Amino acid sequence: MIAQRRGFRSHATTAVLYAFATSLSLLFLYPYWWMCLGMFRNARQVTGDPLRLWPEQFDFSIFAEIQRIGGVPFWQYVANSFVITGASTLLGVVVTAAGAYALTRKPELPGFRWLRYGFLVTIMYPYMLLVIPVYIVVFKLGLLGSYAGIVLFLALGPIQFFLFDQFFRTLPREVIEAGICDGASEAQILFKIILPMAKPILATVALITFLINWSQWFPILVISRSPDTFTLPVALLAMNGELGSNFRGIMALAFVTTLPVAVLFVLAQRRVMEGMAAGAVKG
Amino acid sequence: MPALPAPTRLQSAVEALNLAWRNRVFYLFVAPFAALTIVFGLWPIALSIQVSLTASASALSPNPTYVGLANYATVLADPIFIASLWRTLWYAALAVAANLAFALGVAILIDSPRLRAGSMFFRLAIFLPVVTPDVAGYVVWRWLYDRSFGAINAAAEQLGLPAFGGLSSVDTVTIAVLIAELWHHAGFYMTIFLANLAMRDRALEEAAAIDGATTWQKWRFIILPQLRPAIVINLVYATVQFLKTFTVVVVMTKGGPAERTNFVSYYAYQLFDQGRYGEATAMASLLFAIVIALSLGAFKLSEGRAPK
């Protein structure tokens, strides 16, 4: 009898916990749903009933309206986003992997400790304030308004470095020593032995770098000279700042900005969350 | 065996060069990383400090006029900056406390074995805002707070609650910004807590249960002490994060209303925009010093209290 009562109470507790966690999750997801509805509904419909959970009509005409934003075709922002994010991710993964490998493999070489400290100082500097002097540097290099300036600036990041650092530290030394015994050169050891083992971590870092760099807006805004090199978040910010706000256009643009990373995240959720946690724990 | 002569400076330099030359391939591996770190990290920081010591009008010219610490003096005597600094510290303290408390609560909830079946969905929902571009997230929140378009006031009205001032009222703008930032960041801190919870020693809890510990005692004396690493990491990360609060201000409030959200990083950016480079970089250096001091302080504090 008592056991039965306890069983019931336990079920009730579980139900309450589920109800609470589910409501919280739906609350966190609600802004996405509201954004999607905002693409389809006109201003009068939204102000008349902001809480409606299903659109009156599926009206995609807004995408025809935002064919050009700020004098630049819409597709160019999409292309910029993919090109800048893709190129900076590729460059960042290769450069950081090679750098972190050398720094952890031979920390005793002259200058290597200084480089590590230098990098740590760089990531301690408030990123948003670093961008201001970076403008001056990019100006001096003659890269203002170029894709190269943006891609080079976005390539390095702390989480990426710490993930590689952690991986190379835990690599068993015997693997490398076996390679040396077999008379392999250092380049062969890196490309033939280390890289194949590093495939999972390379994938994780590439994924996280892509997600982080897709969201970047401030360095891109600062280094750009015109909207020609804007990515989707920067275009969205510019549209958000315009007078006479175009609610539907903003929601549609926010949707396009969010969709690729949301899909990528849902496909690779475990890897993203574990990777970000691991990268942070090391830092 | 005769004592070896102490190596001269020249000898050790030659040895270092020898060592470096024998390992030249590693310098090749590290070269691009070093180049990017220097050109886009160390050089800008050095430049920023240099500019903070020059007169704004000449800061970008080839021969800038050095004015010593005059910019720092100007900034520290600027009542808007002082007000902005206190506001930033206050907001950061509030945001760190709210985010960590929320993240810990949600992590404990999701970690519960009773919720195993739904755990992945809950994680996904709370973490999705972390990877959502911040501009997109805050743009949507800005409209959610809107008096006529927004869902938040409409919901408050339906529930019979008083209208929520959102971003247009000085009384509610701080909490409105805080909620939007919590939505964007808390999932990250939650993940750190969850990783730590998964690594804890469950045998201790079983032992405590045998000894008749209550649920509260179990959490307070067995689990919470084991979460120290996650608490420290989150404390440092969140402190650095919220001291730099910037994007949310640019997207939602532009520092207003009545300067209520004019935090230091936004104020520095405004000065930069007006060409007052010397003062802007002086502010950046000051904020840098505060960020380093506070995060080191948080780290030291937790280290000192750690049971050895």
SSE layout and pairing:
The complex is a heterodimer of chains A (283) and B (308).
Chain A: H1 2-40, H2 43-48, H3 61-65, E1 68-69, E2 72-73, H4 74-105, H5 112-124, H6 127-140, H7 147-154, H8 158-170, H9 173-181, H10 186-197, H11 199-215, H12 218-223, H13 232-241, H14 247-267, H15 269-282
Antiparallel strand pairs in A: 1-2
Chain B: H1 9-22, H2 24-51, H3 70-76, H4 79-111, H5 119-131, H6 134-144, H7 151-158, H8 173-198, H9 202-210, H10 215-226, H11 228-243, H12 247-253, H13 264-273, H14 277-305
Description:
The complex is a heterodimer of chains A (283) and B (308). Chain A folds into 2 domains: 2-59; 72-282, MetI-like (MetI-like fold), CATH 1.10.3720. Chain A has a two-stranded antiparallel ribbon with strand order 1-2. Helices cover 77% and strands 1% of the residues of chain A. Chain A starts with a helix and ends with a helix. In chain A, helix 8 runs antiparallel to helix 11 (199-215). Chain A has 283 residues and is an all-alpha fold. Chain A contains 15 helices and 2 strands. The radius of gyration of chain A is 24 Å and the shape is globular. Chain B is an all-alpha fold and 308 residues long. Chain B folds into 2 domains: 9-51, no CATH class; 71-305, MetI-like fold. Chain B contains 14 helices and no strands. In chain B, helix 8 runs antiparallel to helix 12 (247-253). The radius of gyration of chain B is 26 Å and the shape is globular. Chain B starts with 8 loop residues before the first helix and ends with a helix. The model of chain B has no long low-confidence stretch (mean pLDDT 88). At the A-B interface, helix 1, helix 2, helix 4, helix 5 and helix 6 of A face helix 1, helix 2, helix 4, helix 5 and helix 6 of B.
Can you tag this structure with a few keywords?
heterodimer; A: 283 residues; mainly alpha; 2 domains; 15 helices; globular; B: 308 residues; 14 helices; 72% helix
